[in-house]
Amino acid sequence: MPSIRISSELKDQIYCVTCTVKNWYHLFDRHNRFHILEESFVYCQENKSLKIYAFVFMTNHFHFIGSADDLGAVLRDMKTFLSKAFKKSILSYEPQVLRIFEDNDKYQFWEKTNYPKLIETEGFFQQKVDYIHHNPVRKEYVHLPKDWRWSSASKIPSRIPLSVLGS
């Protein structure tokens, strides 16, 4: 199946993006890996023009609604950084897990596509925010979206500042 990509003509628009760990392996929920994700998002906000409108980190994937001057390039750079950071973390804490991500003498931590969905209406934007925020509830990790620490719906302040639409 060909990879679904962000169009170069629409690279600066707002998208809902999903990034999934290869084989849906539960990688983020241990050894400070949620913090690695958070730091990567903060770095991209501060250095790569990334704006985040909503997000959720799950144990094997994350969703966010965001924009950047070139969102495709930001995603590429973010996933490259995260792959290196996760490899280092895995080697430190659970080296046997690294073989799950081997692919022809390289390591592949991500599924091939980000499933970018262009946000074209306020209604579609709100539908995606609701979907993102309710993801931990659907998985029965929490009863209410605000109780999931790794979400923009959380009552716990995140280091990831949210952007405001229209800014």
Pick out its properties.
single chain, 167 residues, alpha+beta, two-stranded antiparallel sheet, 3 helices, 6 strands, globular
Question: Secondary-structure blueprint of this entry?
Answer:
Blueprint: E1 15-20, H1 33-47, E2 51-57, E3 61-67, H2 71-93, E4 102-103, E5 106-107, E6 117-118, H3 122-138
Antiparallel strand pairs: 1-3, 1-6, 2-3, 4-5
In summary, what is this structure?
The protein is an alpha+beta fold and 167 residues long. The protein is built from three helices and six strands.
Plain-language structure description:
- By secondary structure, this protein is α+β, with helices and mostly antiparallel strands.
- It is 33% helix and 16% strand.
- The protein has helices at residues 33-47, 71-93, 122-138, and strands spanning 15-20, 51-57, 61-67, 102-103, 106-107, 117-118.
- The strands form 2 sheets. It has a 4-stranded antiparallel sheet with strand order 2-3-1-6, sandwiched between helices. A two-stranded antiparallel ribbon has the order 4-5.
- A hairpin with a 3-residue loop joins β2 (51-57) and β3 (61-67).
- α1 runs antiparallel to α2.
- The radius of gyration is 16 Å and the shape is globular.
- The chain starts with 14 loop residues before the first strand and ends in a 29-residue tail after the last helix.
